[in-house]
Write a sequence for this structure.
């Protein structure tokens, strides 16, 4: 089975610490977590060791205007493995999908954000992952949930057509709102996703982290070129 | 009413559900069942909810942790699981739910997936976010009482 990851909002923005998330995520069968809160202080090694789970340092940029997002990208790109940009307005969505240095555009359909074929195509060109946020599906009711579902559907149709890479998350702000992969698969199937899509979406976090770690490695020169000995063909 | 002959009785599956919440949450069977029906009704609609027929069979919850057995019709377990996953709060307290496993009989479900309760909380004081705060701890887990509510941590955060 593929390695499944979930992205979490840790204390002080969320109400659980990284280690608490790691404990629950490990029990639920995840292989890793991505911490997206910048202010969180934590040591990766002891947590990863204690719970046998990969901990990825991510940063979510929540700046408002493209100008300040651009500044934040410059400031934070080197300090984290995964760089996320919070969408939710047309300007932010548009800016994020056109940046090669951005890994994931989060919550593109939140509040008055929208998505279209131009952005979907740009995102595949620049390798920016589009996030399917299951948070409102799991925790809202009524109108808000319907809007969120409508957004997810539109996004899904675009992503399928343009083969845009994507990620899936339940977006927990407390460890209590983590949901096991099988649960997310079940919910996804109810709202029109295929089980495989959800699984790939969860696994994509891990693949991205792995790719970025390789790139940050000293032996890495450019894609396909590494410093070191020849690969052993045998 | 006279009960149905065996071949025509509905077949059931039993979900072993792990429940977790804040240390001072008070969840009883009634409130859990109510929220579960709401969750199922909202996600699956009335017909879907009726088909899944989610009924809380046994329920135990104390000191922020518990477990329940939820009965669901055979063949509807995926929908039942999805409805359980959409349970996010009971009486305003956030809850974590996790389906440990599914069995064909209540007894098998209990024997395989249920544990006999969790330990009790121990009161203590910890230094967190630049102040000494009240907290409760159990099995490496520490729940710190903050003005904004509980913050969940583990022993690792205090080493």
């Amino acid at each position: 089975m593929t390695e499944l990851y979930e992205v979490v909002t840790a204390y002080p923005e969320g109400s659980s610490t990284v280690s608490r998330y790691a404990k629950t995520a490990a029990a639920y069968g995840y292989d890793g977590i991505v911490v997206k809160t910048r202010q969180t202080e934590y040591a990766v090694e002891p947590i990863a060791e204690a719970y046998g789970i990969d901990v990825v340092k991510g940063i979510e940029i929540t700046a408002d205007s493209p100008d300040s997002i651009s500044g934040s990208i410059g400031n934070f790109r080197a300090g984290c493995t995964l760089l996320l940009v919070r969408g939710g307005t047309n300007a932010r969505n548009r800016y994020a999908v056109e940046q090669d240095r951005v890994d994931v555009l989060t919550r593109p359909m939140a509040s008055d954000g929208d998505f279209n074929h131009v952005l979907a195509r740009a995102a595949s060109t620049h390798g920016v992952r589009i996030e399917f946020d299951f948070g409102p599906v799991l925790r809202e009711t009524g109108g808000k949930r319907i809007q969120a579902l409508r957004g997810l559907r539109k996004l899904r149709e675009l992503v399928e057509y343009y083969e845009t890479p994507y990620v899936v998350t339940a977006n927990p702000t407390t460890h209590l709102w983590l949901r096991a992969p099988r649960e997310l698969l079940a919910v996804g199937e109810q709202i029109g996703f295929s089980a495989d899509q959800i699984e790939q979406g969860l696994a994509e976090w891990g693949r991205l982290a792995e790719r970025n770690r390789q790139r940050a490695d000293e032996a890495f020169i450019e894609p396909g070129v590494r410093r070191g000995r020849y690969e052993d063909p045998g | 009413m006279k009960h149905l002959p065996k071949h025509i009785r509905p077949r059931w599956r039993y979900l072993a559900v792990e429940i977790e919440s804040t240390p001072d949450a008070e969840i009883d069977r009634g409130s859990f069942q109510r929220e579960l029906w709401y969750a199922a009704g909202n996600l699956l609609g009335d017909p879907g909810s009726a088909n899944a027929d989610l009924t809380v069979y046994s329920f135990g919850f104390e000191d922020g942790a518990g477990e329940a057995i939820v009965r669901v019709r055979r063949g509807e377990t995926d929908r039942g699981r999805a409805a359980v996953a959409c349970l996010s709060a009971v009486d305003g307290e956030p809850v974590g739910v996790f389906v440990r496993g599914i069995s064909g009989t209540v007894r098998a479900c209990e024997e395989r997936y249920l544990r006999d309760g969790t330990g009790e909380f121990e009161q203590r004081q910890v230094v967190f976010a630049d102040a000494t705060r009240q907290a409760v701890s159990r099995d490496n887990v520490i729940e710190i009482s903050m003005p904004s509510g509980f913050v969940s941590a583990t022993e690792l955060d205090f080493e």
Residues 122-158 of chain B form one domain. The longest helix of chain B spans residues 29-52. Chain B has a mean pLDDT of 92. The beta strands of chain B are 12-21, 55-62, 65-73, 89-90, 93-103, 122-128, 131-138, 141-146, 149-154.
